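Course assignment 3, question 2. Fill in each field.
Student: A.L.
Task: Predict the tertiary structure for the chain below.
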Amino acid sequence: MDGAIAQQPFVLSPPEAPVERHGQVDLHLPAGAGPHPVVVLVHGTPLPPGVEDPRDWLFYRGYGALLAEQGLVGAVLSYQVTDLAGLPATADDIAGMVEAVRADPRVDAQRVVLWFFSGGGLLSADWLRAAPSWLRGVALTYPLLVPLPGWEVDPRFLPIDALDAGATTPVVLTRAGQDRLPQVLTGIAAFLDAAARVGRPVRLVEAPDGQHGFDMLDHTAQSREAVRAARDAVVDLIRAD
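Answer field:
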């Protein structure tokens, strides 16, 4: 991944929404006064030094606009993990950002979905283990759910193990069938097996021919369909009674 990633276009072209920057969070705002449900987007990690803030990537701006088009606030977070030992502090920072988003008067604080991408998948473990009542679901897109070889990760950040805690918050998981990282596909398979064993509801979205990052790298009908399917699944979660 290099600086050019910021200019990779999203596979869909939703209308741009007003964007406000508050500290480490960008809010993509739908029409109307609200309060609106919110989807918090947690980008992948770690990022190489010098890479542009993910909030400025065309890709995440596209996702924010896509959510705003549906009447949701799209909250795109910015964070950096430079050392795996810093994951606990990062997770706490993200939790603080989520609370700041929920406190915005235009946000319905009781209707929240967290959407994790790529290496950000490890940070989903806390929310899978013990979800607050306001969390309507967790979405995962080509997520890293097991550490890469050589990574020493606090057991707190093992999403598959987190499923054993007994929480029932539903999951939307998007799998890219041609992911270049074998650990991603292995981890997803293990996650699905564990979820089935404990009865965790998972809605699986498939992009069989998609690579890691297909939603900005593979401009095909299949990619567009997979993104729309994931979006629709997230909307269903957040609007469920």
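Instructor remarks: The first helix runs from residue 58 to 69. The chain has seven helices and eight strands.
Grade: pending
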